[in-house]
Amino acid sequence: AALAASPVMVFRRQSAYAQQPASPRRIGVLLTALSPEGKEAQAFRQGLRDAGYAEGRDVVIEWRSTSGDDARVPELVADLVQRKVDVIVADSTLATRAVQRATSTIPIVMALVADPVGSGLVASLAHPGGNVTGLSIMLAELSAKRLQLVKEAMPRIVRVAALWNPDTPYHPKAVEDLKAVATSLAIELSFVGVRKPDEISAAFSTVSRAHAQALYVLDAPLFFTHRTTLLRLGSKARLAVISGERQYADEGGLMSY
Questions:
Q1: Engineering a disulfide at 48: which of 8, 36, 53, 200 sits with its beta carbon 3.0 to 4.6 angstroms away?
Q2: Mind listing the pLDDT tens digit for each residue in 53-73?
Q3: 68 phi and psi, to 5 degrees?
Q4: CA 57, 61, 67: angle at the middle one, nearest 5?
Q5: Quick one: which H or E segment has residue 214?
């Protein structure tokens, strides 16, 4: 009789356990280029809903944003790791690298990363290894292609200024790719480095002295955050502004690719 009753007791306990609501998974989102209020964040939320996850019931999102101040990245990463979130989504190479240094156990999903292999974030695209996965947007490979498209759009162009940030991991590779293709396009390139927002205005003075006909903005969180300023100064200087991010073209730049 005891043996016969045993399965019933176990079954009921398992049923009661299964009906207990599981604790929501905690997703840490670290933003250096994007905003928690932006359309990209809303698309992220929609993607979770499309996958069947209800915010508040199944997942809780811990948003962290540098608001353009990259010096805050270590502090924000430490906070997410201390809170023991289940996964961290990072929107840039800088953010992904900081999270990778802080934890080898929390899964990391990288987005908007230019060159994850070249930046040392993963071993290869096919077999990333470690605790990092996500997307490569291949910015270094696309840099030369964009300059070719500029020449097609403006056949008589001969001088282009390229705005780059020496602290952005993929930029040195992109600079070399641009130099390699510029000669074949009969374009004289001048490179203007900007590391901080307060250097942007001075950079345009340098661009003006170079008599550039177009401004090529290499994709970087710093420039994306301050793109309104870049486009305003570019318009004032009568420069065609080219970048890889569509928002530049949507907001007044010549083209993006």
A1: 53
A2: 999 999 999 999 998 888 999
A3: 90, -5
A4: 155
A5: strand 214-217
